[in-house]
Amino acid sequence: MRYQFSSRRRPECNIFRRVLTVCLVLIILFLQVFLITHYVADQMFDDSAKFSKLTEDVQYQSISGASIAYRVHGSGEQTMLLIHGLMGSSYDFAPLWSSLGEEFTMISVDLIGFGLSDKNAELNYSKENMAKICVQLMLELGYSEFTVLGHSMGGEVALNVAYTFPDHAERLILIDSAGIEDLQKGFRNAVPVWIIDYIFQNYLIQRLYFPVGFAEKKLASSELFNQFYFFNRQIPGTALRKLITDNDSGRLKDKLDQIKQHTLIIWGLEDTIIPVEQGYRLEQAISGSSLVVINNAGHLPFLEKPEDVLSAIKSFID
Question: What φ, ψ does residue 247 adopt, rounded to 5°?
């Protein structure tokens, strides 16, 4: 009996090989673009003179063994503590400084792990401890009573300030704030440090994600992004991982009715990071609070619609 073997390959095998080859080529090109972009960005950000305006007004104070960076703006009789969000810095609030400077002396703080403050992985990165550090900073600077403004994660830190230190926090302003839910649920211990380090330090990944925070994507310019990335590229993955493991997000959600400060809540209607529905829930939970929803704004309304945010704040403090 004779058997004849065909030398022709099945069409399915050829198609599979071609698809696999194309995929491998695309992956290699993708990695090359990432690495080249990151390298070029590193060269640009190593030129400190280009970004001197981002650091020229920064001061430092040692709090519980950690170096805390902060900025002072304005000369008003009232005092305001401003607390930035995740992957933010004290410089985020630059659009508010000049307009509020007559009414307030403003202390914009870099939370531990962010901006130019310490990023030691041994620090306690819970929102409760961040609130304690913020209050200790204000007391060291001679301010015992102040309005607290917090954005996003910084809003939850501000809630902790108001809840834990009611004698120091006179009023509360929350902008697209965390705190009503545990936003880090399911993320804790799930991601290796090296992935966190790569994602949060890679220029292209952050650049691609940056417009998500804006309702009008054209506002997410390279110039504005570079102001954020200048600080974020310095955050080690170990600090971000500690932020995740020290997570106490949402710990006050059943205690918000105990916050008695006069409270203003500001929200971008088109926020896709923390939807406005959570703003309505905060308004219901905090007795006597008022919610101002800003149209055509996302997660960063003080950058997208600064005039509307300032108008809401000034109406609140008058």
Answer: -55, 125
